[in-house]
Amino acid sequence: MGLELYLDLLSQPCRAVYIFAKKNGIPFELRPVELLKGQHLTGALFQKSSSLRRLPTLKDGDFVLTESVAIMIYLSFKYQTAEHWYPPDLQARARIHEYLGWHADCIRGVFGVPLWTKVLAPLIGVQVPEEKVQHNRIAMDQALQVLQDKFLGDRAFLTGQQVALADLLVLEELMQPVAIGYDLFEGRPQLTAWRERVETFLGTDLLQEAHSSILNVMERVANKTFLEPLPEAYPFMLLRISKIP
Predict the structure, then answer these.
(1) SS3 169
(2) Is the separation of the CB atoms in 84 and 72 below 8 Å?
(3) How many whole angstroms separate alpha carbon 199 and alpha carbon 218?
(4) How many Å is the maximal CA-CA distance in the chain?
(5) CA neighbor of 28 nearest in space, from 75, 80, 85, 86
(6) What pLDDT score does 195 carry?
(7) How far is CA 104 from CA 88, 108, 109, 166, 209, in A?
(8) Distance separating alpha carbons of residues 245 and 241, to the nearest angstrom
(9) Element (H, E) at 63
(10) What does the mean pLDDT of the chain come to?
(11) SS3 state at 121
């Protein structure tokens, strides 16, 4: 059995892994997992005691790995992808890890919140208080400012003059609120130009393929064709909603 990637393309980290593998021509078998059906809790792979029951998940023979950053670094070494993704230079690599540390604290749990407040929570009958919605909007604005001023600055990309893992990870995080109508780039010309550079590098066809499930989410909700969560998914959904600050 070759490389397998267990992904749900509604998920930002899953899309980042998918795009990375596709862009680099890495051969893999896609194993779709629907989080809203609770399939990450019930599938055969996820029933094993060693499983963290998280997506994305990589399976390479008997080797199983979770967490998008770990997966992309693993793939970059195994398939010897272009060095700009994860440079061998010590200081360049340190810049990427500096960003990844900040990303985990200030991006990862922030930019996915609007999808939960506007789409996912209402699907299971939960109304997120407006003060939490406003708090999240302020947190996004503050993070975008730091992203632009500290990490991007006068560089072409977040950690240097070539696209790296950091750029792909944050692009996918920003796509969540963009998909439900937030204009994150208004009044931010540096970030707008950065997004255009990243998307040009990745290519229109690949991005359309990866983003098809997220970009039509509001249309599917309006047409009542969006997947209704199954009861198996309620506990993890309620837990995630409870963690919205």
Answers:
(1) helix
(2) no
(3) 22
(4) 51
(5) 75
(6) 97
(7) 22, 5, 7, 11, 26
(8) 9
(9) strand 63-66
(10) 93
(11) helix
Whether residue 56 has a cis bond before it, omega within 30° of 0? yes
Task: For residues 106 and 138, give the distance between their C-alpha atoms in angstroms, rounded to a whole number.
Answer: 12
Q: Is 24 helix (H, G, I), strand (E, B) or coil?
A: coil
Average pLDDT on 15-43 reads 91
Q: What is the pLDDT of residues 176-192, one digit of tens each?
A: 999 999 999 999 999 99
Distance CA 73, CA 71 (A): 6
* Residue 89 falls in which region: left (phi positive, over 0), alpha (psi -120 to 50) or beta: beta
Chain position carrying tokens 């994860």: 86
Residue 240 pLDDT greater than 90, yes or no: yes
> How does pLDDT run across 169-226, given as a tens digit for each residue?
999 999 999 999 999 999 999 999 999 999 999 999 999 999 999 999 999 988 988 8
Amino acid at 110: V
Which residue has tokens 């550079």?
197
Q: How many residues does the chain have?
A: 245
